[in-house]
Sequence to fold (314 residues):
Amino acid sequence: MDITDIKAAQDRIRPYVKRTPLEYSESLSKRLSTRVHVKYELFQKTGAFKARGAFNKLLLMTEDERGNGVVAVSGGNHAQAVAYASEVLGVDAVIVMPQSTPQVYVDATRGYGATVDLQPSIAEAFDKVKTYQNEGRVFVHPVDDSQIMAGQGTVGLEILEDCPEATDVILSIGGGGLAGGVSTAVRSLKPQIKVWGVETVGADAMTQAIAAGHPVELAAITSIAKTLGAPYVSDATLALTQKNLESVTVVTDAEAVEALTFIAERLKVITEPAASCTLPAAEKLRDKFTPDSNVVLILCGGNTGIDDLCRYVS
Fold:
């Protein structure tokens, strides 16, 4: 996956996804004492960036592959993205989800016409995929797929189109697909730009992989940032993180919730903790920025249910 693949993905998926806005934020700039811009990817189709990768993957499948249908595993935004892309393109989709998945995600996935198969855990969900693959379905992996990552990388192209003066990009890491795609895009076009990753305590698969030097499977996902809850990263996303990112900052759930509240009050949008965590990470990194830096925070998703929101801030 390189910049050529990402540019081709941008052309391919353009009719199917939104070109989300990027805006300067006075509130965040004052808070961080630098120039801060926000990429509002939470306004993307299905409420998160994942639609980009899903459409790129399905559009590259052969007619026969589409006819056999797809299967995906997700307890979050990838589920909705694959379900939505499949509905639009006329592909039968089965989404295997852990039983701990918030009901808002289950309902939305079914609402896009996909069959939902609930399994006791994310590990058992991945195991169940083999059954569907044996039936001929194509597995649309949430992260470990260069076509998925190329689709996610189109976020990076849009950032530099709208903010060519960007000096830093701060993004969330789940399995590492967004980080891999965006960092490849922006550093290919602007090698001096710095990309910073963020995870939350209890969903820190990339941080643990970096420390170990290889992917590490988490025993459990304990963070409220469920959409960062990949049980492990892949060899490919680990390699891209090591190559392209300056560091990965880990923040607490409490810090993510405080930032979610601030963003809701000042920017007037409700994010997921998996997106709001970029703000406390930026605060921890503020000594890396000058007053003239142009820092871009990617708000990657906004699929927070009202029940969850009330629980977070109670």
About this structure: Residues 146-162 form the longest helix (17 residues). The mean pLDDT is 96. The two ends are 43 Å apart (CA to CA).
